[in-house]
Design brief:
The chain is of the alpha+beta class and about 220 residues long. The protein is built from ten helices and six strands; from the N terminus they run H-E-H-E-E-H-E-H-E-E-H-H-H-H-H-H. The chain has a single domain, classed as Muramoyl-pentapeptide Carboxypeptidase, domain 2. Helix content is about 40%, strand content about 10%. The strands form two sheets. Strands 1-4-6-5 form a four-stranded antiparallel beta sheet. A two-stranded antiparallel sheet has the order 2-3.
Length: about 220
């Protein structure tokens, strides 16, 4: 397993991973940098019913049963618009504790696995105590009416915060211009609202995470 990250985020992650290993946790990224074209494939596949589309409770939906606006809303519960994914920045990754994954098991990112009784409960507790020391935080820590909580999704604050500030509605509109985006008309008609609900409505990084820039550059554990 592995993923690509921004150099500063990668250095900080490796330092954090080494610290987790000393506490018996095999901190593994399962998704990191994802470019526009890859996100476009994911989006179009879900919109057209070629990929699994889930509601907020992880129940399958039939794309054919939804109109275009409903499909857009359903996709955005778990997947970002191309151009709006935090994975574009190289600052964000999804993580598991590989020691707790049975051999041969497929990785599924499910909230219950990260809860108090889940297989990744110890990982969740460790990250809650230590992730900020390495510059990471949870942007989707709770339901804010947009993206559902993702206890597996870590964001490196020193890179992610400037990127989020730069991602205006106008920039996103320009990124989507000319793209073969399924449901593009429905997206364009409500882009400002979608940006507010699914891009901007995230947790702010704590000061401790933002202050970890020097640590990330040094790539040494705290």
């Amino acid at each position: 397993m592995g993923c690509e990250l921004h150099p500063e985020a990668a250095a900080a992650f490796l330092a954090m991973r080494a610290a987790a290993a000393r506490d018996g946790i095999d901190l593994q990224p399962v998704s990191g940098f994802r470019d526009f074209d890859r996100q476009l494939l994911i989006w179009n596949g879900k919109f057209r019913g070629e990929r699994t589309l889930l509601d907020a409770d992880h129940r399958p939906l039939r794309a054919a049963d939804l109109d275009e606006a409903q499909r857009v809303a359903a996709i955005l519960v778990w997947s970002a618009l191309p151009g709006a994914s935090r994975h574009h920045w190289g600052s964000d990754c999804d993580v598991i504790d590989l020691r707790q994954l049975p051999p041969g098991a497929r990785v599924e990112l499910l909230g219950g696995d990260y809860a108090a009784s889940g297989r990744f409960a110890r990982l969740s507790a460790w990250l809650a105590a230590h992730a900020h020391d390495y510059g990471f935080f949870f942007p989707y820590d709770r339901d804010r009416g947009g993206v559902q909580p993702e206890p597996w999704h870590l964001s490196f604050a020193p890179v992610a915060e400037p990127a989020l500030a730069a991602l205006t509605v106008e920039l996103l509109r320009a990124a989507l211009a000319g793209a073969d985006l399924a449901g593009g008309a429905a997206v364009a008609a409500h882009l400002s609202q979608l940006h507010e609900r699914y891009v901007a409505a995230v947790a702010a990084p704590p000061g401790a995470a933002l202050a970890a820039t020097a640590l990330s550059r040094a790539a040494t554990p705290a």
